[in-house]
Design brief:
Elements: H1 2-36, H2 41-45, H3 57-65, H4 68-99, H5 105-114, H6 120-133, H7 140-144, H8 151-161, H9 166-175, H10 179-190, H11 192-207, H12 211-216, H13 225-234, H14 241-275
Helix pairs in contact: 1-14, 3-14, 4-8, 4-11, 4-13, 8-11, 11-14, 13-14
InterPro entries: MetI-like, MetI-like_sf
Keywords: Cell membrane, Membrane, Transmembrane, Transmembrane helix, Transport
Family: Belongs to the binding-protein-dependent transport system permease family.
């Protein structure tokens, strides 16, 4: 009997040890970066990780002497509208692939999925030529329009919509609900966990873009944070490592907020589903 009790407990302790070890590997670089942002640049240049002058001066310098707040605002605008557009268009296309009957539906869906195999770098040149001819360079639109929808989002929501019982669709037809009414009042609430997941994924993917904004934005009025950090390093503030590290720490804050909010709603949706 003791052997049966000790075995599972020992296995659980081993799992906790592995999880703690992995958490440390993930958290240590972030904590080290945050700690570095509190140190004077002179101490950072010497390679010292300890200083008697720990303060928030680097954060004050980053906020007052660099356009980091403007970069944050630009990224928030771009990421929010990209997220909203993908939720709308991906859900509509997924609905069509599940609930609308038309010739070649499955073939079209497989062609749609095939676009996921193309790396983004292969699309950069034709997309750049297109937006340049449309006169969209150095504008919010150039960061939003090419990402209004995604094959991955459509695929994920289609798989979620396929779990909706067919009886609900039949009942809605008997009640005389239109496709729009069924989509808004039944399909979307039923798939809210997948929608929360796609919202967090699309927001973070847009927030972390680097190559595309570097090619298409040329001024601080529209430059997002990832390209903005690179710009700070190329300016006269290059040697101010404390300020640059503080800017990087500020940039991380919105992504952490999105992850925590998404995790909260994801758990809430799972608990409601378990109750039902």
């Amino acid at each position: 009997m003791n052997k049966n009790i000790t075995g599972p407990n020992f296995q659980r302790l081993g799992q906790l040890f592995v999880l703690i070890l992995l958490a440390l590997f993930i958290l240590i670089p972030f904590l080290l970066g945050f700690w570095t942002s509190l140190l004077p640049t002179a101490d950072i240049s010497k390679g010292s990780l300890w200083s008697s002058h720990i303060s928030l001066d680097n954060y004050y310098t980053a906020i007052t002497q660099t356009p980091i707040i403007r970069y944050l605002f630009n990224s928030l605008v771009i990421s929010f509208f990209t997220m909203a557009a993908q939720l709308l268009f991906c859900s509509m296309s997924a609905y069509a692939f599940v609930f609308l009957e038309f010739k070649g539906r499955n073939t079209l869906f497989y062609v749609f999925l095939a676009t996921m195999m193309l790396p983004f770098e292969a699309e950069v040149i034709p997309n750049f030529v297109t937006v340049r001819n449309m006169g969209l360079l150095n504008h919010y639109a150039v960061m939003i329009i090419p990402f209004l929808t995604s094959a991955f989002g459509t695929f994920m929501l289609r798989q979620s919509f396929l779990q909706i019982p067919g009886e609900l669709k039949e009942a809605s037809e008997i009640e005389g609900l239109s496709h729009w009414r069924f989509y808004a009042s039944v399909v979307m609430p039923y798939s809210r966990i997948s929608l929360f997941t796609l919202a967090a994924y699309s927001f973070l993917a847009s927030w972390n873009q680097y190559l595309w904004p570097m090619l298409t934005t040329f001024s601080d009025d529209f430059r997002p944070v990832q390209d903005g950090l690179r710009q700070l390093q190329s300016q006269e503030s290059f040697n101010n490592w404390g300020m640059i590290q503080a800017s990087a720490a500020i940039v991380v804050i919105p992504t952490l907020i999105v992850l925590f909010i998404g995790q909260h709603y994801f758990k809430s949706g799972l608990n409601e589903g378990a109750v039902k």
